[in-house]
Amino acid sequence: MTSISQSADTAYVPIWRVRLNLLLRGMKTNWAMFAENPIGLIGLGLIIFFGLFALAQPILIDTVWKPSVYDPVSGYDIEIAYHPSPPSARHLLGTDPLGRDILSQLMYSTRFEFALGLISAIVTVLIATTIGAVSAYYGGIIDTLLMRFVDLIIMVPFLPILIVLSALMAIGMIQLALVIGILSGFGGTAIVIKSQALTIKVKPYIEAARIAGGGDRHIIFKHMVPNLMPISLLYMMFVVTGAIFSEAVLSFFGLTEIDMSWGLMINTTQVFGYLLRFDTWYLLIPASLAITLLCAAFYLVGRALDEVVNPRLRQR
Amino acid sequence: MWSFLGKRLLQMLVTLFLFQAATYFLLDAQPGDIADLLAMSPDIPPAERDRMRAELGLDRPPVERFFKYVWNFYQGDMGVSFQLYPREVTDIVKERLPRTLVLFFTASIVSFWTGFVTGKILAWKRGGFIEYASTLVGVILYTVFTPWFALMMIWLFAVYLDWLPAGKFLNPMVWIGQPLHANDVFIRMIWTALGGIVLFLIGYIFSNTLHRKARSAFRYGSFIVATLVVLGYWEFFTGGLAPFAWDILSHLILPVLTVTLIGYGGTMLLTRTSMLETLREDYILTARAKGLPEKVVRDKHAARNALLPVWTSLVFSLGSAVSGGIITETIFSWPGIGLTLLQAAQVADIPVAMGTLTIIGILTLLSHLVADIGYAFLDPRIRYT
Fold first, then answer.
1. Residue A201 Cα, gap to closest chain B Cα (Å)
2. Which 3 state secondary structure label does DSSP give A101?
3. CB B319 within 8 A of CB B363
């Protein structure tokens, strides 16, 4: 009697631990595939670098940098007679025409770029996965209506609409992230995810779930959506690239109400007329390079993930 | 096929109507209207302002105004610009659309052709240093911050090397005192360029009937002949317009080069991915097993099938060229549709913004239609009924 109960005790493993182990094992094999590709690793390295870069700014402000001089928005260095000043030991990347430290601005903006990218990517994936799964699962009239709506959104030119919206209301970081997320969520991403959902819908486990008495909602959210997650994650990366790029372009045109961002730094350079002068390169190049590198980083990670998610692209 | 086209055209009209409705009400929601703008002076009494509003029809409900706008739109009347007051929007669009189309058609076609060829070769020779290097270059060109890239191009070619003008459509010093309209010269340039392309295409199609060895020589020959015909026309038959055409052309080179390079990266990467997927297909193995030459397998079997997604991307990018063109056109001060839209949005010139947005919408719709028709030609398995 006792021996039986003992063996039952040892055999008993809580379900969450089984799931965790499966998840970890899956992640390990996926990571091995991801790490095979140096392009993805370069991207990941860049993202980690920018993450540390963003974290360093508040620490530096608290310890080494005097806020009155190094504040990215309202700082001013009175000890330098003429602004913009070239890089020096005091200001590693020089100062902008308003006497603010460029390195500090660059670091301060990074966190908003991350937040913007993350919010718009999450909004996109929430919308696109729901639409894709629902549209593929039900088909018929729901599918037609949703897809025609998606067609309409795809037709909407992205940048012009943002420009028109900026004339309509003050566009801050959150509004911009939501608009980008909604437009790309109802747009092309939804179609890609729907086509993936169509292949999932006919898998045996969906049928098994239905036979076991699972309702529509249960099947969509417990069986289809988790299997759509890999491809959603992939498209998140591309949305982040798009979001950062759009923000930079809008700020560059001076159409946003953001107090500091990389695009705004270039806008300041343009407003003060330093755009095509190469002797003041430190006004233009650090911000532009940061935009390019962060966009490229997310894109590279996306491409490497593509090879993990899409077996047809693998080398072996 | 015809019933498919009819159905698609009907769908397009409905979509265009919805698009117009969305943009109209979005723009209409802006605070203030033209009457506030025109009657800004405090000397104008409120009664007068109301009269102006009634005269312009602004006291009517928005829905009624929208239907009136659509009705006028289909009769070719898109209203009058606020900013350039008595000019009609139709006139502005007619003047600026060719500039945008030329810039982006040329750049898209060149970048897609070169991107397709290099992407094809890259996928074929997979692995190794060259692949990583070119992928990296492609990614950098694809994700580079476009305004910055355009500025660097201006800096290099217009400031540092001083080979090309930095921006704008023409150099006023050349045109001053001439009884010419720049747009007439430009339209004439477009027609001659199209004539040259048609001439080259005739030679190209004819060359397909020739023996394989004579083929490429004949193609190069017809390209040179077409170029010479166009150049000869401008030199001898336009009555001294050549310097003016050259002025416009020299302003066109730098933006076209920039847009081409930006588009090139994306196409190359896309072709490479698409080729890699195609190369896994069984028919590639069959083609190899039959003992076909490598080049035939690559160009006739793999690349032809890998063209489908690239074709989609080409057509879509032509459609979205106008909207994406805002950036390039602004940096190069190229007075096309994109720059017009940006300027109109900045000063709340609603009729012009509405007109340019509608044109962008129509172009996008047309390009989607062209994409669908093109599929049927590229992939014989796709049939529309």
1. 23
2. strand
3. yes
Number of domains in chain A: 1
Considering CB atoms only, which of A155, A300, A306 is closest to B15? A155
**Chain B residues within 8 A of A305 when measuring between CB atoms:** none
Reported as a pLDDT band with limits 50, 70 and 90, residue A316 is very low
Domain span at residue A215? 109-313
Q: Which of A152, A253, A276 is facing B15, going by the closest CB pair?
A: A152
Helix (H, G, I), strand (E, B) or coil at A171: coil
- Predicted complex ipTM: 0.78
Residue A41 with chain B: CB contacts under 8 Å: none
CA distance B271 to B116: 6
Secondary structure (3-state) at B170: coil
Look at B19 and A266 and tell me if their CB atoms are within 8 Å: no
Is A127 part of a structural domain of the chain? yes
Of residues B202 and B171, the one with the higher pLDDT is: B202
Question: CB–CB of B361 and A157 under 8 A?
Answer: yes
- Quick check: is A170 in a domain? yes
Model confidence, pTM: 0.82
End-to-end CA distance of chain B: 6
The CATH number for A292's domain is 1.10.3720.10
- Asked, for residue A141, whether it belongs to a domain, the answer is yes
Whether A177 is in a domain gets the answer: yes
Interface contact flag, B147 A266, Cβ < 8 Å? yes
